[in-house]
Amino acid sequence: MPEIHAHRQPAAEFWLGVRHELPLQLGVIPFGLVFGILGLASGLTGLQTILLSSILFGGASQVVFAQLWAAGVPPLVVGGSVGVVNLRHVLYSASMAQYLRHLPLRWRILLGYLLTDEAYAVSIKRFRDGPDSPHQHCHLLGSGVTLWVAWQASTVIGVIAGTTIPDSWSLSFAIPLTFIAVVAPSIRRRADLVACVVAAALSLICQPLPWKSWIIVAACGGIAAGWLTHYHAQTRGKFTVDKNGGTS
Amino acid sequence: MIWLVMIFGGTFTFCTRFVMLSGWVAHGLPKWLIDALAFVPIAVLTAILVPAVLIDPATQQIIVIGNARVVAAVVATIMALLTRNVIATISSGLATLWFVQWWL
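^ inputs. structure came back:
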C-alpha cells in the first residue's frame, strides 16, 4: 500500500493535522474564554492572563495558577502545584519519542512546546495508524499550531469580554464542568475509580491545610491510591492471563 | 514576583513535554512510573473540581442540599458518561445550573 501512494508532502501533513485538530476546538475555545474571564477575576492583569496562556499553555494548570495566586499562596507552592498538574505530559513525551527523536533539536523543541493533551490525542493516532512518512511530524505541527492559535485567541477574547459578562451567569462553573467531561469518561478500571474517590475525599478533608496545599495533597494521594490499587490487582493476577503482557 | 513564578512554571511545563524527546533519557521510562503517571489527570482534575462544586464560596462550607452546582455536576456527569462529548457536558451543566438557580 505505501508504495502506491507517494509520501505526503510536509504541507499536506500540516493541513491534515489542522483538519484533525479543528473539531476539538469546540471544547477548547469555551475553556479559553472562561480562563480569560477567570484570570481577570482572580486579580491578574490582562497581560498576565494572556501571557500565561502562551507561557504555561495548559488549561488546568493555568486555572490552578490563577486561583492559587489570587489566594496569596506562597510562590513555591504555586509552582509545585502547577508542576504536579502538568506531570502527565511526560507520558505524551514518552510515547511521541519514537516518532520524533530523529528530528533536529529545533524541531524537537518546537514540537515539545506544542505537545498538549489535544494535539497529542490526534497526532499520536496519525503516527500509529500510518502510513509512515518522513514528513509526518508536520502533522503534530499542524495540530499543535491549531490548538495554540485557538487557545491564545479565546484567552484574549475572554480578557476583553470578561468585564462585560455579569457574575450571575456563573460562567466560571464551565471550568469544573470541563474537568467532569474529561474525568467521567476516563474512569475505566477499578484503580481509576479509587484514584478519583481518594482525590475527591482528600480535596475536601484537607481544606483546612494552609496555602491551598490540599490541591497537591489530594492529587498526590489520588495518584498513589490509584497506583497501589493497580499494582495490587496486577500482583494478584500474576498467574492468570494478563492481557497487557507484563506483570512487574 | 508573579512573572518569575510564571516563567518557572512555564519552563517546568516545557520540560515535562520535551524531556523524552530530548535524548537525555536513554531507555524510556520505567513501567511503574508510566503506571503512576497514568493516574495524574484523574487525580488532579478531581481534586480541583470537587471543592469547586461542593464548597460554597460565600461560607467556605461543604453544602450538598440546595446547592445548584451539585445538581448541575450530576447532570453533567451523566451527560459525559452517555455522550463522551465535551460541549454537551458543559452546556447541559450550565443550563442545569441556570435553571436550578432560577427555580430556587
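Chain B touches chain A through 67 residues (CB under 8 Å). The first helix of chain B runs from residue 2 to 18.
thumbs up if we can close this ticket
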